[in-house]
Amino acid sequence: MKRGNQNKPRRTFTPEHKLDIVKEANANKASVSTIARKYDVNANQLFRWMREVEHNKMRWVRIATGQETPMKLPLQTPTFLPVTVSQQIPVQQVQPATSPIVTLEFANGHRLQFHQDNPELLKQLVAVML
C-alpha cells in the first residue's frame, strides 16, 4: 500500500524561507501546527527547523543568518580535451591493470579513490549521491 503521493517531486525550501517560517512560528501569533498548515509543511518538520535554529549547528541556519555563504559551483561551458594518438599499440600487447582505480573528483577539489573493481559499491555510491 502506497502512503502519500510518491509521484510528487520532493520540495526544497531555501534557507531564508525556512528561517522566515520559523520566525513566524516563534512569534506565537498562531500555533505551530497552524503555521505548518499555512506553508504546507508537516508540523514535525517545522518543530525540527525550530530546534535547528535554536542550536545554530545546521549549515542552512548559518547561511540564512548570514554567518556562512553558500558554495556556488562555477558555471562553465563543458569542453572536450584534445586527444592525440601518438602510437597504436596492438590489442594483444595491452595488459589489464592489476587493480583498477576509480577516482571521483568533487567540485570542492576533494578526491575519492577506490582501489578495487566493485560495481555494487559504485552503484550504491552513485545512488547515495543523487
TrEMBL record:
Stored Pfam families: HTH_Tnp_1
Any single biological process term in GO: DNA transposition
Signal peptide: none
Source taxon at top rank: Bacteria
Classification via InterPro entries: Homeodomain-like_sf, Transposase_8
A GO term, aspect molecular function: transposase activity
Family under the similarity heading: Belongs to the transposase 8 family.
Name recorded for this polypeptide: Transposase
Protein species of origin: Paraglaciecola chathamensis
